[in-house]
Amino acid sequence: MGESNGYLDSHGTTGALHLKAAKQPVDLTIAEDASYRSVLHANAVPPQPTSLMPKELRDRVLQWLQKHVPNSRLEHILRVEQMAVELAVCHHVDPAQAAQAGLMHDLAKFFKPQRLLEMAQAEDLALDPVDIANPHLLHAAVGAIVARDEFGIHDEAVLDAIRHHTLGCPGMSGLSCVVFLADSLEPGRGDTPKLIALRRNSQQHLHRAVWLTCDESLRHLLARAQQIHPRMVLTRNWALALTDKKLPLPRAH
User: For residue 251, is it within any domain?
Assistant: First the structure.
């Protein structure tokens, strides 16, 4: 999910799970699974993202996005924003931070490869050989730079959630987990049985859902003989170590 290969995104990336996108346009709110609302904590109604960010800031970000990403990408971003808020409510994460990170997670999505490399190098980011071979993977880290410099975001938890939305990171916060999962599982990715099962898991077991989402990404990349970024493997192992092994694996019905 996350970044894809000819499903939703076609940049041959090596990090996030790739499951087929819905063929028809979808509503910008999360798909309604029957079990979804039952796992929100008592009497909680997920707030709308529009109520969680200062209107002036949100309007500025949306205007910037309209100039820098196509409409299809903007629709994805808005679905991620909404799903991140709803997962934040499920897992007692700050929904305002989730809304901010969700809205800004793909700021650098359509930057040219050379620009991504130059910005990462200017920031002295540590680059893996897989990053050099696939600069598109840097859009997450570069997106955090844009959020900081263009929009004055200095909340490190929000910036980390933007940085880690594609590959994850061992030890990442609950907020980062929420945005990672929202990017991978938002309803525009499709409604396959596997996706539905993963969404259900994401509502109930945060680290388990991260592990299972990484596993699905790795299976996809291995099947297509694509490079795998080592951070995805490290993220998978970290999340697996935090998972209750007594729970049965989810089944796609």
Answer: no
- Judged against a pLDDT cut of 70, whether residue 10 lies above it is answered with no
66 and 121 Cβ atoms separated by less than 8 Å: no
Q: Which two three-digit tokens encode residue 178?
A: 């929420």
CA distance 102 to 179: 6
Distance (Å, whole) CA 182 – CA 167: 13
Q: What is the pLDDT of residues 166-207, one digit of tens each?
A: 999 999 999 999 999 999 999 999 999 999 999 999 999 999
Task: Tally Cβ neighbours within 10 Å of residue 226.
Answer: 16
Angle of helix 139-151 relative to helix 55-68, nearest 10 degrees? 130
Task: Report the alpha-carbon distance of residue 87 to residue 71 in Å, rounded.
Answer: 24
| CATH code at position 168 | 1.10.3210.10
187 within domain boundaries: yes
Indicate whether 25 belongs to any domain: no
Express each pLDDT in 20-52 by its tens digit. 333 333 333 333 343 434 444 444 567 899 999
The set of residues, in sequence order, having a beta carbon less than 8 Å from that of 87 and lying 6+ positions away, is 93, 98, 178, 181, 182, 202, 203
